Amino acid sequence: MGDLIIGLWEQLRDAGMPEVMLFLPDGSACRCHWDNTSVMGPTRVALLGDQERNIVRIVPIGACVGIGIASPKGTDPNAYRGVIQARLSAPAATA
User: Superkingdom of the source (predicted)?
Assistant: First the structure.
């Protein structure tokens, strides 16, 4: 699952959407920018600020159970799907 999430995230980043919501194994979700990831040995990890505990969580992306994109405030997520689809389709259209 981790390779799939990393692959999806790389495609989103290349389409101009480097910030995603990562769905964590504990059922929570956290916003993370690609620039806030690092490679530790063979494992890409997300560095997530946990304000409740005042720590930076180091979460292997392979442990995440899903990925998403938050719609801007005031925007209906159902309507925002078209924006995401257009951005993901744009690079393929120019190739």
Answer: Bacteria
What single-letter amino acid sits at 77?
P
d(CA 66, CA 63): 9
Question: Which pTM was predicted?
Answer: 0.81
As a dihedral over the C-alpha atoms of residue 49, residue 61, residue 44, residue 35, rounded to 10 degrees, the angle is -50
Length of the chain: 95
Structural domain boundaries in the chain: 2-94
Q: Token match 């405030």: residue?
A: 73
Question: What gap in Å lies between CA 33 and CA 17, rounded to an integer?
Answer: 9
CATH, domain range 2-94: 2.30.30
Tell me the sheet residues that pair with 55: 50
